[in-house]
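debug: dumping io for the single-chain case to check the tokenizer round-trip. Nothing else runs in this session.
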Amino acid sequence: MSLSLTFYGGAGEIGGNKILLQEKGAKIYLDFGEEFNFGEEYFWEYLQPRSANGLEVYFEFGLVPQVPKLYSKRMLERTKLKYRKPDVDGVLISHIHSDHTGHLPFLDEGIPIHMGHGTHKIAEIYRKLYPSFFTLGEHESIRHFRSGERFGIRHLEVEPVHVEHSVPGAYGFVIGAGRGNIAYTGDFRMHGPRRDMSEEFVRKAADAQPVALLCEGTRMESEEGAHNYTEEEVEGKVSEIISKSRGMVFGYFSMSNMDRFMSFYRAAKENGRRLAIGTRLAYMVKEMREKVPVLPDVAKDGNIAVYFRLNKSCRFCEKDYKPWEREFMGNMATYEEMAKNPKGYVLHLNFNQLIELVYLQPKKADFIYSSSEHFLEGEGNEEEKKRWEAWMGHFGIKFHKAHCSGHASREDLQRVIEEINPEILIPVHTSKPEEFRKFHRNVKIPEKGKTMKI
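debug: decoded output
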């Protein structure tokens, strides 16, 4: 049997990667993610499928492909797809983001899941912090790997290679098959503090002389020549905003983005302020120090303050907080002390924590939005944006943006493709796959649900 790729997700769309690779009886999936805006046309707020229904409702609306020998018996109980023992040899996970892992809970428990140590670490952190909202599902075998550690899945030889992304523990893969080597970038960027990791992937992929390169293209839709903001530039802009602020500074960035955490940490420190973070972010940073050694000790670092919200007794008593929160109480900051010294802090604040502004009563404050542009410019967020703007307006808070992408720029994608120089280029994770034709002589554009022979 020749080598083939079937695209159940990630074809002609950003996110939702779910790509089946088959050759000589071997079957592996490259990621198993959930599409952005998954099910939005049918579900909203409290109108959601019940977990007890398994895949029944998702199959009804064609939101999940009806693939035999793939899903767990529990997920298929109320569907017409008969349960059969799985024939999939493994799933390779590139990183923790839900558009690459979100549908893992649907899989049969017996299918081995391969993921990096860092990815599994973040998953365990999220499961502890958000037990009602986060799960990877039940799996009999989660097998860890590190960069450069080759392993076999039947006759396929897999080499994971770390890449830089907006979350630690991201990988691309070089897969040795009978037809030739296949390279898969996962999600990556070339403009952050660990761009050397992405460069290593490019070198190894080029050395493999791949018959096919599956390359993400999230930013292929950007205009040619558009400025590619770097993490260093974000840090500089954040520092400038802080230096000019006459009151408290608030900032929002993704909790798992450790590069952005460090940018805010250094910018606050440079301007004589403490970076104040909630207990959940404090726990994330503490647990990730082993994987990201540059991270500070949040329980002891004088440049960090751990913000404790009012709870139960309203007296900030130890008994009011969970055991994992209590270890940060020695570095506690409350709204009372922060309100007395607003120019001494930069507070990480997300949408669900806006209520803290009622206690802090900020004057002449600034807010720095430093996360995905999807919230500000994407569809489906109008209600949330309206309320965010209302809170900012009520307290007279000046709004700023300071962000750079977790994905490679159009120019960097061109360079990477030229250096790897595959026989066949396959664009994934992009809404503009045809743009890749400008960078390579032999581009095959995948179609969702269709199989491509290599």
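debug: round-trip ok. The domain at 4-223+406-453 is CATH 3.60.15.10 (Metallo-beta-lactamase; Chain A).
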